[in-house]
């Protein structure tokens, strides 16, 4: 075991110590004005985050899960509808679908980006669906339920390949809600539009989580949904606040899903640093790539030319993931696994009737991925220590296999 200080997976303490002089006035303002719910701090954040995402509207909510849920409901998903997403994501994606009244169904991921594979999505409609003769809308062959929406997940900080997904959505009259909970500031180059687009600005709505460890994190739970559709934005504002169009006048039955003012103020402060933090993450990723460039047995993140990755996570693939994780832990290096069991094999969804082997790319990735330390303040010497221990392990493993 080495004698270096522990290398954390994520260092939130240092970040907040550096920001303390900027963050404390937020709390003081809330205490002095008693503005804890709604009000100017929330409105300021919503305006700045909408501008950051290149969208017309931002609706602050209590979590990323609520952001996906309210976006689906406001966009038009109805009880009994099928919503297509991927099995390689956090369960909040499918929880939100279920809580919106939908039924999640899956297509496999691209082997290199870990995001929704547009080819598999096309095959889903060709193999699993039939189409109404009058409307042309898709229905699931077995359940006879309408397929009304798709939720591409921009995983690990990189967007899905959106042009073909949006083309399919137009062809099959689908709603598109982007799960951008890990992709604050990520960009996609649309060849169709010949311009870069921000995550959360391409579908009918986008959803973001501000869980503390995210690229833009609150000091507690928080989320937001973005859209360019004023009707969708208004519906989400009502849903988050008990269905109220104005106080005590309830147009629909809603939820208690508001973003509190203190978290909104904290997020406004942090948002002004986000572009630089993302740049630092990109530099950390570049250095990891360089340090691993001559290493056999380690697959580093793939970033196509149509993506600007913001590296919420730096995820590698190796054959003996558990062995490597143990080796790094013994060297006082923290790691994570995102995610060890695909959703279609989770006990929570065993009643859906999925089986091992149905989504092989997701299943193989889940068995091999390991998230290495990634945060803006990660030093080059810490990265050399991390990569050195990874290379030490895989080199021994490759040599033994030969």
Strand order in the sheet with the most strands: 1-11-10-7-6-2-3
pLDDT < 50 stretches: none
- CATH architecture assignment of the largest domain: 3-Layer(aba) Sandwich
Distance between the termini: 26 Å
Largest sheet: 7 strands, mixed
CATH class type of the largest domain: Alpha Beta
Q: Give the amount of beta strand, in percent.
A: 15-25%
What's the pLDDT, averaged over the residues? Answer: 97
Q: What is the helix/strand order?
A: HHEHEHEHEEEHEEEEEHEEHEEHHEH
- Assembly form of the protein: single chain
Would you tell me which CATH topology of the largest domain applies?
A: Aspartate Aminotransferase, domain 2
Count of DSSP H/I helices: 11
The total number of structural domains is: 2
Helix content: 25-40%
The tally of strands reads 16
Say which CATH homologous superfamily of the largest domain is assigned: Type I PLP-dependent aspartate aminotransferase-like (Major domain)
> How would the global form be characterised?
globular
Structural class: alpha/beta
Rg estimate, integer Å:
22 Å
What does this protein structure show overall?
With 402 residues, this protein is α/β, with parallel strands linked by helices. The chain has 2 domains: 13-269, Aspartate Aminotransferase, domain 2 (3-Layer(aba) Sandwich), CATH 3.40.640.10; 274-401, Aspartate Aminotransferase, domain 1. Helix content is 40%, strand content 15%. The chain contains 11 helices and 16 strands. Strands 1-11-10-7-6-2-3 form a 7-stranded mixed sheet, sandwiched between helices. The protein has a 3-stranded antiparallel sheet with strand order 9-8-14, with no helix packed on it. Strands 4-5 form a two-stranded antiparallel sheet. Helix 3 crosses helix 7 (230-240) and helix 8 crosses helix 11. The chain is globular, with a radius of gyration of 22 Å. The chain starts with 11 loop residues before the first helix and ends with a helix. The model has no long low-confidence stretch (mean pLDDT 97).
């Amino acid at each position: 075991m080495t004698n270096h200080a522990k290398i954390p997976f994520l260092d939130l303490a240092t970040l907040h110590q550096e920001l303390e002089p900027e963050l404390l006035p937020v709390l003081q303002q809330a205490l002095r004005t008693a503005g804890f719910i709604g009000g100017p701090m929330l409105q300021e954040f919503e305006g700045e985050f909408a501008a950051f995402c290149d969208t017309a509207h931002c609706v602050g909510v209590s979590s990323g899960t609520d952001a996906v849920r309210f976006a689906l409901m406001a966009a038009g998903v109805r009880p009994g509808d099928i919503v297509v997403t991927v099995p390689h994501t956090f369960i909040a994606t499918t929880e939100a679908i279920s809580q919106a009244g939908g039924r999640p169904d899956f297509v496999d991921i691209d082997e290199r980006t870990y995001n929704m594979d547009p080819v598999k999505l096309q095959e889903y409609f060709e193999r699993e669906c039939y189409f109404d003769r009058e409307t042309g809308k898709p229905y699931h062959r077995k359940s006879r339920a309408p397929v009304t929406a798709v939720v591409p997940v921009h995983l690990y900080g990189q967007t899905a390949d959106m042009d073909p997904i949006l083309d399919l959505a137009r062809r099959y009259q689908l709603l598109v809600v982007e799960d951008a909970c890990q992709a604050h500031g990520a960009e996609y180059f649309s060849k169709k539009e010949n311009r870069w687009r921000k995550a959360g600005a391409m579908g009918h709505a986008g959803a973001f989580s501000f869980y503390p460890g995210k690229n833009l994190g609150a000091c507690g739970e928080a989320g937001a949904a973005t859209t360019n559709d004023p009707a969708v934005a208004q519906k989400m504002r009502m849903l988050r606040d008990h269905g109220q169009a104005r106080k005590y006048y309830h147009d629909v039955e809603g939820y208690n899903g508001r973003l509190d003012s203190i978290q909104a103020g904290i997020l406004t402060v942090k948002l002004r640093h986000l572009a630089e933090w993302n740049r630092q993450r990109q530099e950390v990723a570049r250095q990891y790539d360089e340090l691993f460039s001559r290493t056999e047995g380690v697959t580093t993140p793939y970033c196509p030319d149509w993506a600007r990755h913001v590296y919420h996570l730096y995820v590698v693939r190796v054959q003996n993931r558990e062995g490597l994780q143990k080796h790094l832990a013994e060297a006082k290096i923290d790691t994570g696994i995102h995610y060890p069991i695909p959703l279609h094999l989770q006990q929570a969804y065993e009643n859906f009737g999925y089986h091992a082997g149905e989504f092989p790319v997701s299943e193989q990735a889940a068995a091999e991925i390991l998230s290495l330390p990634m945060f803006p303040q990660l030093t080059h010497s810490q990265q050399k220590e991390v990569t050195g221990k990874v290379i030490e392990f895989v080199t021994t493993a490759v040599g033994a296999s030969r």
